Every structure is written in C-alpha cells, then in structure tokens.
Amino acid sequence: MTLQSTGERPLGNDSVSRRIRELAPWFHNLHLPSGHETAADHPLGDFPAFKWQELGPALPSDLSGWTALDVGCNAGYYSFELAGRGADVLGIDADEHYLRQARWAAEQLGVEERVRFEQLSVYDVARQDARFDLVLFLGVLYHLRHPLLALDALAEKTERLLVLQTLTMPGDAPLETPPDLGIHAREAMLEPGWPVMAFIERCLADDPTNWWAPNAGCVEAMLRTSGLRIVERPAHETWICEPAEASPLVAPELDAAAGR
Length: 260
What we know:
Blueprint: H1 15-23, H2 49-55, E1 67-71, H3 77-84, E2 88-93, H4 96-109, E3 115-119, E4 132-138, H5 147-156, E5 158-165, E6 197-199, E7 212-214, H6 216-225, E8 228-235, E9 238-243, H7 250-258
Parallel strand pairs: 1-2, 1-4, 2-3, 4-5
Antiparallel strand pairs: 5-9, 6-7, 8-9
C-alpha cells in the first residue's frame, strides 16, 4: 500500500507510543484502549473506521459461534471488529510487517483468544480444510494477478456470508448479457455495462500491485460464476453474498489449485 501513515505524528515517549513508531508505517488507524491511535495522520482520514461504519450495520451484530476469515487483514481492524461481536477470527496477510502490527494490537485490545494471525496468501486458502461462516475479502481482489481463482477458492470456503470490496471502474449500470454470444457479434461487448475488467500494466495511484479495475457488472458476474448470490450492496464497491451454486467450469481449475 502507498497511502499509509508515516508514524511521524508526535505520540509522546510512553511505551505504547514508542511501539507504534517502531511498527510504522501503518495502514490501519487502530484506536487502542490507552487512547492512542496507530495512524492518526492517515491521508485517508480515520481509515478504515469510516468504511466499517458503512459495512458494520449490514452484518449480524451477534457473531457468537461464528468462524470468520479476514483476507488481507493488514493490522487487523476488521478482525478486531468481528471478534468484538463474538466471532473466532483468522486473519491472513502475505506481509509479515502488518501481521506484527496485528499481533501486537491484539494484545493491546485483549482479544488474543478470539483472533489469530497467519502469514498466508489468498491462494493458500484453496489448500486449507477449514471453512468459515463469514469471509471478508476487502480491498484485495484488484491487487491479485489471478483474481477469479482467488474468488473461487474463497467461495468454496464460505458457509454463510462473503463480503467483497474492490476498486472498480466508473459506471454502475449492469447489462443483461445473452446466454450465448456469436463469434461475429462481439461488438456487444463494447456496450455500456457489459462485464469488463481493465488491466493495469503499470501503476494506479503509484501502486504497481493494482492490477485490475472491474466494472460493477463484472464484479457481480464473477460472484455469480464463483457460486455466490448477492444479497446486499451496503456501500459503494461493496457486496454481501451467500453461497449458491458455482459454474461447473470452476471445479477443474480449483481442484488443480487445491492439489486435489
């Protein structure tokens, strides 16, 4: 990530402030019981708290007995919110820097028994046996070289709900596509709303890991073919889904990725 706190805002010389500086830079602004904030100078503001204010009310307020997977958990903000509602949470991230932040923050928040963090990629999930009542897939899809494979893997592991948030292209009007398209009728793909995904060869927002920008129709088509039914759109670029039936074409590729 490039939009993150530098950790340079004065924090004081107490032990918590010193540890926040040692663990910088931060992408999540965590509000700790001590009154400290980990990224009070975040260029996006109080991030991701303002995102959770949109999503949180759309999820069950009591998650007791639920298991949850937070993909690309970063410093753990969403994992901690789910744990606060009673869920047992696994947060995964490919970057050990953020996991160090998350593990330390879990101690500060006193939720070590409900949240654990592991260094895994989303593709590793395909080879795991565990399934989860709730899967958070927030701000990750467009950073992946193989986004549909990742979505297929997560859909297979979802028992109740999956939440997807992703960067998208401008335009939100979906288009009803035909069940089959003739080889010489491809001009239909240029119609506004046709499910498309722009490939970003270089950088977007100075970030070379921003690979894709799908339009809303593409996101929804991907969700359906992965075996997910859209039940709500609580915010811009955010979808809440429940398990349905995946396209039969998914199975062979997902089996290969899972080593089955």
